[in-house]
User: Fold this.
Amino acid sequence: MKPILAALAFLLLVAVPARAQQVGTCSPSLGEGYLDINNVRARILNNGNLFYRGEPHVYNIPKGSSSNAIFAGGIWLGGQVGGALRVAATRYGPYEFWAGPLDEAGNAPADCGRYDRIYKVSKRDVARFEESGTASPDLADWPTGLGAPTIDADGNDVNLLSQPLAARRDRKINLAAGERPKFLGDQMLWWVMNDMGNTHNDSDADPIGAEVHGLAFAFDAPGDIGNTTFYKYNIFYKGRVPLTDTYMGIFSDPDMGDFGDDWVGSEPTRGVGYVWNSDNFDGGGEGYGTPPPAVGYDFFQGPIVPSPGDVAHVSGREVPNFKNLGMTSFVFYNNGGGVTEDPGTAEDYYNYMQARWKDGKPITYGGNGRDFSDTPTKYMFDGDAANCGYWTECNSDGAGAKISPGDRRFVLSTGPFTINPGDQQEIVYGIVYGMGTDNFNSVTRMLQADELAQAAFDVNFDLADPPSTPEVSVTALDGQIVLEWTNGPRSNNYLESYRQLDPFAPPGSYFEFQGYDVYQYADIADQVGKVIATYDKVDNVKQVLENIPGQPGYIGATGRDSGVQTYHSIGGLVNYKEYYFGVQAYAYNETSLPKVFRSTIARVVATPAPPSATLSESAQELAFG
Assistant:
């Protein structure tokens, strides 16, 4: 594996001295951040888990609602070192990853606290820096030396990981020299953690010697992509002998809204495990009401293993004579201490990642996966949930027997594979969301959303950027407000020139700027607003009906062939009262799904009052004719 990875400019670690690796004395990691650029707000942690480290648990979708779709999640890792089991896995703590990198000897930092941080950057942060010269704290401190993805002014990767840790650990991004974060998505959060920082008090296993670079990212986009979050983990193995028979698991305790009425299922051909509601009403304080959604995990990219004649893909690069493993098992278990319930030892975690119960017996097809048949299976509840087919929780025996719904936990796993000393492996997964006409149709909608997320992965997340957000200024007049908006030279819509290739449409198909919508909001809390004006191209593109397969049709835009302009006047207002407005650019492509692609809305607060300053030329024209 090493020559292949080296050919791809992956890391070959410095040779490890002969002395033994030392377990550290680090304190639990406390760093956290929020992935929140789209319709999801997700709590990101640097201890091996996501969304929960004590309340609040946060996987809030739709963002700003009272509902959370996931209680807790995280990664499990286990393998054999010379026949001895090593595991780093937990569910709710004590956690088995600590902040910071490992050194060349595979030892944790003496003080993990200096690395106890989640770094969060967005393309907006970069745009603001390029316009003003002022960088956000995380952009200024972007830890290139620790491995945070960075490119230089020519677009080439800046990879310093072959240097000794002491020589690079304080090296930050060089913004003045043209270095920039290497983006996946429009916002990303990066962190580094290791499993050597202290003893493993949940699994009671010896540490592995793993350094893990985590990346969570999302797109500022409408629709299904705007309801999706993505995750990439790079695992650097710094042990002394090969880690064999290795498995990695993605754990989830979903708690979709009301945790007491959940079911789960899997789609092995897609690499998806999911949670859905057992009836068409999700109650409780965090419940979704009617209809309830479904939420799925998709294992987009697994580790690579030798396979002559095949081609694997790692970060969009081809690796000949290897293949990517996908999801190799999906296991559901209950809370409790029995053999089909919560893991408590290293062997329990390792068994679940191999599709075995805690006592080592294989999962079997049908019923609850335990002794219903003699047919071993790797994938629980892989039937057609949308039609209550066999084997699902709504039809566990082929005769319609339902399993009692409740609090569910599951793990998607991949393996076995081997990591040699100095090698790395990379996995990528996403969390998708779908709300249909009822709880069954929501499974269908979730899988349709997953098709788009999979397509995004297939093009290495090289998606079209939406039109840039307009820059809006306000002129206050007597009982009147004038809104004016511009697109600066760095905007992708400068002079209304927006044009972006849609990778999901027929070849050579582009979104092109179409117009602006002006919104008025009832108050500061109003997130919907009302369109009070549209200024669009004169080209007979008026009402645009969106017909996306599997979704109800809706009107995507209502153009008027009014001609494009960049100002709007609102009269009849009460002086000294606050009003709330917004301006949004939108683009159009007849062959895309959806056909309309919108910017984020630039919101402003306006207070009419008799003028006391010089008016712009356009404001004077509107005010005085």
